[in-house]
Design goal:
Length: about 425
Amino acid sequence: MGVTTLAWLGAFATLAVPLAIHLWSRRRTTPVSIGSVRFLEGLPPLSRRTLKLRNPWRLLLRMAMLTSLVLALAGTFLRQSGTRAAERWLVVSPRAVGNEAAAALLDSLAPLADEVRLLHPGWPLLDAPASERTPDIWSLLMDLDGRLAPASRIDVVAMPTAAALHGDRPTLASMVVWHALPIPVPDAGSDYRVPHQIMAVYADPEREDDGRYLAAALRTIAASSVDSVSVMRYGTDDIDSVTASWIAWLSAAQPPGAVRARVEAGAVLLTDAERSVEVASEMVFPGLVPVGRSIRLTRRGAVPDGAPVWRDDRSDPVLTVSRLGAGVHYRLASRFHPRWNSLVLRGVFPSLLRPIVTGDVRRPPTAITVSQALPRHDPGVRERRGPDRAAMVSLFFPLWLLATLLFVTDIVLAARLRSRPT
């Protein structure tokens, strides 16, 4: 037996209240009228009234009632005897239900699990209704770790994003294995309505190949749209009259005043890096680039200003967006060339570029690697935290019920004592 809240044991001091009431209580007396006090003369003096208990059983009843309340509020529990067997749970994010990749994982993992539940408060079954909002996965895993026996295993099928992880990384006694799922986003063949516009790609001689890769991706987007889109390539000297509503300026030089004026009037501008250094990282695109086939980033420039749109595996922004007058300015910390990254060689390049062309500046969820999403594993952490909650049998309700019964019994006894003749 033990208690979870030691501070409540200080409430045992309230046991002095019924004891004091019984020691200092006085019986009710009935005044008696007498004719004269002279008949009282000569009587021996009254001795001082001594303290004595009246109705001791009622005193014990009240003290037992208070004791039951204190023990209930202190979280008294019994420890189950024996060692509980380790379990294996498979928990699935509600947003992953119906996902083809999740279905394949469930087919292989479900037969090995003791329980298959939704990663949701209350741990409902997979067919139970649950909110599609991103849950706080770390808090849920801490709750589940407290329910399971030591040396248990938790298989998580979810999308590792920063929005699903809050607070400090927890340390769990159970081993957690995370099966990462891609974030579902429209693919390259989706039907987008690209507004009628002219897209212009300006590239200096050094970036001639960059302009060719970018223009090819833009033509792919234009071919799958339902509105007319024109893609034109220009040299950086051909800027006397800028009429395009979407402009890619690929040059080490800053965009000229005519381009900036066009953007401030409402156009979209995309610029690349001026100077760069060699790096060895990966560009993260949840939902479009499968795990294990990430896009290598070999050269990049400084972190550009603006809200992050693309990130690398270190969470550093690679593409940002900001306002420039009435228009929008995208800044790329790399270039559209295979020597800088493998993005332009991948078939997913038009899909990644499409939101920038369509004006959808919503930022994708910040991707987190599996190693960043995994809680720490320490089999001995539960002993250091205190008693095993899953091995405890709470006595709160039995003690609360006992206190209620004792209270009712005290009321009945009080009514009987008042009905007795004095």
